[in-house]
Protein backbone atom coordinates (compact mmCIF):
# COMPACT_ATOMS: atom_id res chain seq x y z
CA UNK A 1 0.00 0.00 0.00
CA UNK A 2 1.18 3.52 -0.72
CA UNK A 3 2.24 5.77 2.14
CA UNK A 4 -0.08 8.36 3.58
CA UNK A 5 1.39 11.81 4.06
CA UNK A 6 0.99 13.76 7.28
CA UNK A 7 0.26 17.45 6.69
CA UNK A 8 0.88 19.69 9.70
CA UNK A 9 -0.89 23.03 9.31
CA UNK A 10 0.28 26.26 10.97
CA UNK A 11 1.77 24.86 14.18
CA UNK A 12 3.48 28.23 14.52
CA UNK A 13 4.20 30.18 17.69
CA UNK A 14 1.70 32.97 17.06
CA UNK A 15 -1.10 30.37 16.88
CA UNK A 16 0.22 28.49 19.93
CA UNK A 17 1.24 31.10 22.52
CA UNK A 18 1.46 34.33 20.53
CA UNK A 19 -0.83 37.02 19.15
CA UNK A 20 -3.47 34.56 17.88
CA UNK A 21 -3.05 31.79 20.47
CA UNK A 22 -5.67 29.11 19.85
CA UNK A 23 -7.48 26.83 22.29
CA UNK A 24 -5.88 23.41 22.86
CA UNK A 25 -2.76 24.42 20.93
CA UNK A 26 -0.07 23.07 23.34
CA UNK A 27 -2.02 19.81 23.64
CA UNK A 28 -2.34 19.58 19.85
CA UNK A 29 1.41 20.06 19.42
CA UNK A 30 2.16 17.33 21.97
CA UNK A 31 -0.36 14.96 20.35
CA UNK A 32 1.21 15.63 16.93
CA UNK A 33 4.71 14.80 18.21
CA UNK A 34 3.25 11.59 19.61
CA UNK A 35 1.52 10.77 16.33
CA UNK A 36 4.71 11.38 14.34
CA UNK A 37 6.34 8.65 16.41
CA UNK A 38 3.89 6.20 14.82
CA UNK A 39 3.73 7.73 11.33
CA UNK A 40 5.49 6.05 8.41
CA UNK A 41 5.21 8.35 5.37
CA UNK A 42 6.45 11.83 4.51
CA UNK A 43 5.56 14.85 6.66
CA UNK A 44 4.65 18.13 4.98
CA UNK A 45 4.18 21.53 6.60
CA UNK A 46 1.99 24.55 5.92
CA UNK A 47 3.15 27.92 7.20
CA UNK A 48 1.13 31.12 7.35
CA UNK A 49 3.74 33.67 6.24
CA UNK A 50 2.51 37.24 6.05
CA UNK A 51 4.19 40.49 5.05
CA UNK A 52 3.93 43.12 7.83
CA UNK A 53 1.22 45.00 5.88
CA UNK A 54 -1.09 42.04 5.27
CA UNK A 55 -4.74 42.93 4.62
CA UNK A 56 -5.98 40.35 7.16
CA UNK A 57 -4.50 42.44 9.99
CA UNK A 58 -6.88 44.76 11.88
CA UNK A 59 -4.87 47.92 11.15
CA UNK A 60 -5.41 47.24 7.43
CA UNK A 61 -9.11 46.44 7.77
CA UNK A 62 -8.92 42.69 8.41
CA UNK A 63 -10.27 40.52 11.24
CA UNK A 64 -7.00 39.44 12.89
CA UNK A 65 -4.23 40.85 15.04
CA UNK A 66 -0.86 40.88 13.30
CA UNK A 67 0.45 37.30 13.24
CA UNK A 68 3.00 35.06 11.50
CA UNK A 69 4.93 37.98 10.05
CA UNK A 70 7.79 36.82 7.84
CA UNK A 71 11.09 36.63 9.70
CA UNK A 72 9.58 36.79 13.22
CA UNK A 73 9.54 34.15 15.95
CA UNK A 74 5.75 34.02 15.72
CA UNK A 75 6.02 32.61 12.20
CA UNK A 76 8.28 29.72 13.25
CA UNK A 77 7.22 26.09 13.61
CA UNK A 78 7.17 24.99 17.27
CA UNK A 79 10.51 23.66 18.45
CA UNK A 80 9.06 20.30 19.52
CA UNK A 81 8.34 19.63 15.84
CA UNK A 82 11.59 20.98 14.41
CA UNK A 83 13.43 17.61 14.41
CA UNK A 84 10.90 16.35 11.85
CA UNK A 85 10.93 19.36 9.51
CA UNK A 86 12.41 19.07 6.02
CA UNK A 87 12.63 22.48 4.36
CA UNK A 88 11.74 21.13 0.93
CA UNK A 89 8.40 20.04 2.38
CA UNK A 90 7.43 23.43 3.88
CA UNK A 91 4.74 25.30 1.95
CA UNK A 92 4.14 28.99 2.60
CA UNK A 93 0.85 30.84 2.23
CA UNK A 94 -0.55 34.31 2.84
CA UNK A 95 2.40 36.06 1.25
CA UNK A 96 0.38 38.37 -1.00
CA UNK A 97 -0.57 41.46 1.07
CA UNK A 98 -3.94 41.83 -0.67
CA UNK A 99 -5.18 38.23 -0.38
CA UNK A 100 -6.44 36.18 2.57
CA UNK A 101 -5.33 32.61 1.97
CA UNK A 102 -6.65 30.18 4.58
CA UNK A 103 -6.05 27.12 2.45
CA UNK A 104 -2.55 25.70 2.29
CA UNK A 105 -3.39 23.90 -0.94
CA UNK A 106 -1.81 26.55 -3.12
CA UNK A 107 1.07 27.14 -0.74
CA UNK A 108 4.50 27.01 -2.36
CA UNK A 109 7.83 25.72 -1.08
CA UNK A 110 11.14 27.60 -1.42
CA UNK A 111 11.69 25.98 -4.82
CA UNK A 112 8.30 27.26 -6.02
CA UNK A 113 6.57 23.87 -6.09
CA UNK A 114 2.97 23.70 -4.90
CA UNK A 115 1.72 21.31 -2.23
CA UNK A 116 -0.39 19.44 -4.77
CA UNK A 117 2.56 19.05 -7.13
CA UNK A 118 4.76 17.56 -4.41
CA UNK A 119 2.01 15.24 -3.13
CA UNK A 120 1.68 13.93 -6.67
CA UNK A 121 5.45 13.48 -7.06
CA UNK A 122 5.42 11.50 -3.80
CA UNK A 123 2.50 9.40 -5.15
CA UNK A 124 0.39 10.14 -2.10
CA UNK A 125 -3.22 8.94 -2.09
CA UNK A 126 -4.28 9.85 1.44
CA UNK A 127 -3.37 12.97 3.36
CA UNK A 128 -3.68 13.04 7.17
CA UNK A 129 -4.26 16.63 8.22
CA UNK A 130 -3.69 18.15 11.65
CA UNK A 131 -2.93 21.63 12.95
CA UNK A 132 -4.35 25.07 13.61
CA UNK A 133 -6.97 26.44 13.26
CA UNK A 134 -9.68 23.79 12.66
CA UNK A 135 -12.19 26.34 11.39
CA UNK A 136 -9.85 28.15 9.00
CA UNK A 137 -6.66 26.71 7.57
CA UNK A 138 -7.27 23.07 8.51
CA UNK A 139 -10.76 23.03 7.08
CA UNK A 140 -9.98 24.93 3.88
CA UNK A 141 -6.89 22.87 3.19
CA UNK A 142 -8.67 19.55 3.83
CA UNK A 143 -11.55 20.54 1.53
CA UNK A 144 -9.24 21.65 -1.28
CA UNK A 145 -7.32 18.36 -1.03
CA UNK A 146 -10.62 16.44 -1.31
CA UNK A 147 -11.67 18.47 -4.35
CA UNK A 148 -8.32 17.70 -5.97
CA UNK A 149 -8.99 13.97 -5.57
CA UNK A 150 -6.91 13.08 -2.52
CA UNK A 151 -8.38 10.97 0.26
CA UNK A 152 -8.34 13.05 3.42
CA UNK A 153 -8.37 12.23 7.12
CA UNK A 154 -8.28 14.78 9.94
CA UNK A 155 -6.55 13.85 13.20
CA UNK A 156 -9.08 15.17 15.67
CA UNK A 157 -6.83 15.07 18.74
CA UNK A 158 -4.16 17.08 16.93
CA UNK A 159 -6.23 20.23 16.32
CA UNK A 160 -6.48 23.66 17.94
CA UNK A 161 -9.12 26.28 17.29
CA UNK A 162 -10.25 29.86 17.66
CA UNK A 163 -13.69 28.95 19.01
CA UNK A 164 -14.96 25.65 20.48
CA UNK A 165 -18.38 25.85 18.78
CA UNK A 166 -16.79 26.71 15.45
CA UNK A 167 -14.40 23.79 15.83
CA UNK A 168 -17.25 21.35 16.50
CA UNK A 169 -19.27 22.63 13.57
CA UNK A 170 -16.28 22.50 11.22
CA UNK A 171 -15.63 18.86 12.19
CA UNK A 172 -19.28 17.93 11.55
CA UNK A 173 -19.27 19.64 8.18
CA UNK A 174 -15.99 18.07 7.12
CA UNK A 175 -17.31 14.62 8.11
CA UNK A 176 -20.45 15.20 6.03
CA UNK A 177 -18.25 16.01 3.03
CA UNK A 178 -16.43 12.67 3.23
CA UNK A 179 -13.40 13.72 5.22
CA UNK A 180 -12.55 10.95 7.66
CA UNK A 181 -12.13 11.95 11.32
CA UNK A 182 -9.63 9.75 13.12
C1 LIG B 1 -5.40 31.28 9.94
C2 LIG B 1 -6.29 33.03 11.08
C3 LIG B 1 -5.46 33.89 10.41
C4 LIG B 1 -5.31 29.83 9.69
C5 LIG B 1 -4.56 32.13 9.25
O1 LIG B 1 -4.44 29.48 8.87
O2 LIG B 1 -6.09 29.06 10.28
N1 LIG B 1 -6.26 31.73 10.84
N2 LIG B 1 -4.60 33.44 9.52
ZN1 LIG C 1 -2.94 34.49 8.73
Radius of gyration using CA atoms only: 15 Å
User: CATH homologous superfamily - what is it?
Assistant: Isochorismatase-like
N- to C-terminal separation? 19 Å
**How many domains, as an integer?**
1
Report strand %.
Answer: 15-25%
Sheet with the most strands, sense and barrel status: 6 strands, parallel
What does this molecule look like?
The protein contains 5 helices and 6 strands. Strands 3-2-1-4-5-6 form a 6-stranded parallel sheet. Helix 4 (134-147) packs parallel to helix 5. Helix 5 (164-176) links the parallel strand 5 and strand 6 (180-181). Helix content is 27%, strand content 19%. With 182 residues, the protein is of the alpha/beta class. It has a single domain (4-181), classed as Rossmann fold, CATH 3.40.50. The two termini are 19 Å apart. The chain binds pyrazine-2-carboxylic acid and zinc ion. Zinc ion is lined by residues 48, 50, 56, 67-68, 94.
Amino acid sequence: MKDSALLVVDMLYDFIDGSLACQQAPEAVAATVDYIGRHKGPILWIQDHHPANHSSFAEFGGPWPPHCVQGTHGADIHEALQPFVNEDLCFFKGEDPATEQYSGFEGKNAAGQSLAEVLELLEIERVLVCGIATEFCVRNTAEDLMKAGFKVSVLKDCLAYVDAEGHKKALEEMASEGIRLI
